[in-house]
Structure formats: C-alpha cells, structure tokens
C-alpha cells in the first residue's frame, strides 16, 4: 500500500518580497498625510535606504505636495486614468526596493478598483504593500482609515500614525471606539506617534517647500543674522 497519497501536499511557498510600496490612505484631507510621507522619505534617505517617491496627489499641483518638497525627483502619476494606472505599475518594476506613494484626498475608490484588478499580478511579482493611515482627534479621520481597511483587507500591512495636531490631542475615538478596536484586533497594525508641530513652523515649511530635515540642517549662523 502506498501511503504517500495520504500525505497532504505542502502549501506553495509565498512569493519572495522584492519591493514594498508604502501607500498613504488617501481619504480625509488635512490630517497630515504628506507631512508624514516627507518625514518617512527623509528617514529612509538619512539611513541610506534607497527609496523612490511617487506623487499620486493629482489635485495638489503646487504647495504641500511631495513634488513641492522634493522637486523633480518625484514623478507625478495620475492614477485616475487607465494610462496613469499603467504608469504606476511601470514605476514598480525597477529602481529601489521601497516606494513611497502619496495619495491625494478622495482617492479611495480608484485605489480600491486598482487593488481588486491588479493585486494578484503584482504580488506574484514580489511586490508587497503597507497602507499608512493618519488619525487625529477627528472621528472622520478614523472612519476614513476603517473604510480603506474594509476594502483592502488583509492584502496589505497597516501602519497607523497618531498625529498630534494640538499639544494635547485626544485620540479616544481611535483608541476606544468599537469599530477601531475591531480593526486593531483583526489586522494588528503598527502604531507610531507624530508629535505636535507649531502651526507657524508647519505652515512656513509647507509654503516654502522645506522639509523639517532641511530646517534642522540650516546653519545656526544664518539664523542669528536675521
């Protein structure tokens, strides 16, 4: 008797991750998504990790976009068009192993449809995703993250950023609401904190396209002569 037929087949090995796309959840606007993405970009660069930046915020053509902060180094891709979606896929095929893609507000439905259509193909090519959601004291920011998670499901890892927009931001809705707790229990997202920044500094850096790293690196002598 051949007992080999009673041995279950081993599951197919998971595809090797060749690249990771870190994608901001483009839901509610004004929560600090681009501030977070510029900070991540500088962190990767300062730690010598090659990274590609993609600006998918087609509505923000001037100040406050990744293109505004990093200039010509950031391709602007319009994923609202079939050609733009193809261009996005093309950007994934070569270059650095990490891609930071900043979505504009309201890009949800377009992204959901892209995931539904392309996810299997890109994962077979070794591309994995991390979805970054930024939450504030505003329950709408949390609801936006939950809406994205309801569509993306377990096809991505999750990073949640608690953005302190005031000195004493109340994250009670994110930390205690039934829906948010269910999301946390289901997907075990990583959670980090983005500290409060003075509005006068935040607005100035946004208006002039200066990252916080650039402000920090500015010679003290030039500050003292102003």
Tell me what you see in this structure.
The protein has 226 residues and is α/β, with parallel strands linked by helices. It has 10 helices and 6 strands, in the order βαβααβαβαβααβααα. It has helices at residues 33-46, 66-70, 82-92, 108-124, 139-152, 172-176, 178-187, 199-208, 212-216, 220-224; strands at 19-24, 51-56, 98-103, 127-135, 157-163, 190-194. It has a 6-stranded parallel sheet, with helices on both faces. The model is unreliable at 1-12 and 221-226 (pLDDT under 50).
Summed over residues and divided by their number, the pLDDT gives a mean of 79
Output the number of helix runs: 10
- Percent strand: 15-25%
Oligomer: single chain
Distance between the termini: 90 Å
Summing up helix and strand content along with how strands pair, one would put the structural category as alpha/beta
Topology diagram in text:
Blueprint: E1 19-24, H1 33-46, E2 51-56, H2 66-70, H3 82-92, E3 98-103, H4 108-124, E4 127-135, H5 139-152, E5 157-163, H6 172-176, H7 178-187, E6 190-194, H8 199-208, H9 212-216, H10 220-224
Parallel strand pairs: 1-3, 1-4, 2-3, 4-5, 5-6
Question: Could you list some keywords that capture this structure?
Answer:
disordered N terminus; single chain; alpha/beta; 226 residues
Short structural description:
This protein is of the alpha/beta class. 42% of the residues lie in helices and 17% in strands. Residues 1-12 and 221-226 have low confidence and may be disordered.
